[in-house]
Fold Iron ABC transporter permease.
Amino acid sequence: MNPLLVSGSAPSGRQFYTRLIHRRRLLLLTISVLTLLCFLADLSLGQAHYSPTQVLAALWDSQAPLSVQVILWDIRLPVALTALVVGASLSVAGVQMQTVLGNPLASPFTLGLSAAASFGAALGLILGVSILPASAVSFAIPVNAFLVSMLAALFIYRLSQKRGITTEMIVLLGTTLVFTFTALLEALQYVAPDQALSAVVFWTMGSLSRSNWLKLAIMSGILLTVSLTFARHAWALTALRLGEARASSLGVPVARLRLKGILLASLLASVCVSFVGTIGFVGLVGPHIARLLVGEDQRFLLPASALCGACMLSAASVLSKTLVQGQALPIGIVTSLVGVPLFFILILRTRKV
């Protein structure tokens, strides 16, 4: 090979890679700014409207009006931060499920984890089944939802280890779990008294208003720990997108990586769903938007997915306060209404490409 060609092509290759990295960082910065704007809008809107200047003053100035400080710090700030954390958690869980299973339809919602959590919550709300004492009533329902959701995740993993089970079959199995837990939930609703029935229906719609500082700290800690674990395996997860055979030839322990990915993603999603209820489409649409923006490189796909999910749920929180005058819609309804057309757009865009 001509050494002149080699020496001439190397700088251009490095320049292309440098431009690509710069573009991806710029996109991450843009999503971060959009997320911050949605966060400020979420803090500003509500029964009482405040300007961004009033919001920033109440957050940083101790001389701000006491009423504004109480509303922001005790009511709106935990909810707005929960929207960011839950959105990021569901999107990160979704992107890693899609990565380790090699299926673009994998998500906490489509694998049955959300339906399992709803059934677990209904067991406590309708039948009073709980492993926690009555003194811990505020955490009894979330613990029920978390345990049943993790049992569903372990069931999926155990079946995925059987010989001849493909990733497509795992997604089909998750769809079967969705219908199974939905049927069990409807059976409980059929025999439930009116008060318990209304509580179950409200829980399954998803709501950020149930959050508080303690629950936010738990979800944030889980998100940080799981995200750092995924970040340490960024190279292996990127290689896995090339296929199992090629990833194995590169020295990636595919089986162990898939186990860790499924369990950590399920843990991340189950904790969030157990606290805020069923929120669909964020864990499915957010990763696809991030993948279109930054590609498959997990060094950028992981933070991009977290930012896209956080931005989506924060924007949905803003919409839930503005769609109906004087009333906040459950966040799960808004994400479904917005997520369906977004998913159709992504499907049509992918088909054209």
The chain has one domain: 16-352. Residues 16-352 form a domain with the ABC transporter involved in vitamin B12 uptake, BtuC fold (CATH 1.10.3470.10). Residues 1-8 have pLDDT under 50 and may be disordered. The chain has 14 helices and no strands.
